Amino acid sequence: MRILFIMLFAIIMASVESCKKENSNSDINSDWIDIAKEQLIQNFLSGDTVVNVSFTTKVAWTVLVREQGGEAERNARRSAGTSWISVNPAGGEAGLSNLTISLEPNTNDVMREAEIIIQSNDKSVVIKVAQEGGYEQTFTNPYLNPNLAYGSVTDIDGNVYATIKIGEQTWMAENLRTTRYNDGVAIPYITSGYDWEYLLNKGGYTLYDFLPENDAIYGKLYNWYAVNTGKLCPQGWRIPTVAMWDKLGNYLGSLGGNVGGRMKSTGTREAGTGLWSDPNGGATNESGFTGHPSGEISESPAFFGIGNYGRWWSATENTEVGGGLGEAYTRFLYYDGNPNSFNGGVSKKGTGLPCRCVQN
């Protein structure tokens, strides 16, 4: 069982040149603030998600929280309400103060970091926060491989997806279901064939046969214009390029073939044990990828393929002579008796296909 760890430790930043006081050699820590380092170490060992820090200052103070990533990424998280760390209060007067640091559980496999900066004028104390991933999740998806340990990632809508590490890559083990880009902008939801056909070069999504009940299992069908925004996946994730898809296929091939079978969910529709049409050749889902036959919607538009194949977008545009700018590359799995079938192809950009995300 993987356990959530929270690591908190204080680093005191001092500059003798900035200490313009009678005693120019005074330590910044004893000069204006006292941090109980032992309390931080104790919370690191216990793994609490709420940490209370007590300290005494001789001056008024304020707090700045700086999460990992660039300024644009941090601002996007704050505006979307997806920040994982909060600190209260944001400042105080001189004297004894209590600071409450709250951390959301880290359900990803990657450590996340932040700095809590207690500052006054030209002096500051930095509390570095590092939160290791691996928080245990329970999934209700009956098609996942029960013998594997899955992580998770949450999109901007709050949908939680199982994730699985395959070789050196970490993939979503479920199709994307978000209704918004990761900057909070809504993706147009198309509910008629006429509107899909005349969506033209704008991003959009729909559901197979326009039926809401197809969302939970098969996910949404997005056109490539939505993919091409680069904002379809959660922060820190992306739609895979052709090279990323090929890396997945090459790794599974190195295990002894049966690439397609290792990626497909098991069972058949006819037997009432799965989603694929018979025979669902070679399906073992050993990789945990859990590929479903989600079908697609063409530009025309027409729905087809559910039960027979799953085709997913890549982020790579087709620039070959004859292909033009109207196509992008895809990867797909098929129901037939060829278990090695993990094939490449191209689709018109206005086609609606399911999407998988891979971690950056």
Using brief descriptors, characterize the structure shown.
32% strand, 360 residues, 21 strands, single chain, five-stranded antiparallel β-sheet, alpha+beta, elongated, Immunoglobulin-like, four-stranded antiparallel β-sheet, 2 domains
The general outline is: elongated
Q: Strand count, sense and closure of the main sheet? A: 5 strands, antiparallel
Number of structurally distinct domains? 2
Coarse structural class: alpha+beta
Helix content: 10-25%
Explained architecture:
There is one protein chain. The protein has 360 residues and is an alpha+beta fold. It folds into 2 domains: 6-131, Immunoglobulin-like, CATH 2.60.40; 151-359, no CATH class. 16% of the residues lie in helices and 32% in strands. A 5-stranded antiparallel beta sheet has the order 1-9-8-4-6. The chain is elongated. The two termini are 25 Å apart.
Structure summary:
Helices cover 16% and strands 32% of the residues. By secondary structure, the chain is of the alpha+beta class.
Give the SSE map:
Elements lengths: L5 E8 L14 H5 E3 L1 H10 L3 E8 L3 E7 L3 H10 L4 E4 L2 E2 L2 E9 L8 E9 L2 E9 L19 E4 L5 E7 L2 E4 L20 H5 L7 E2 L8 H4 L2 E2 L1 H4 L9 E2 L3 H13 L4 H5 L30 E4 L5 E4 L2 E9 L9 E8 L7 E7 L9 E2 L1
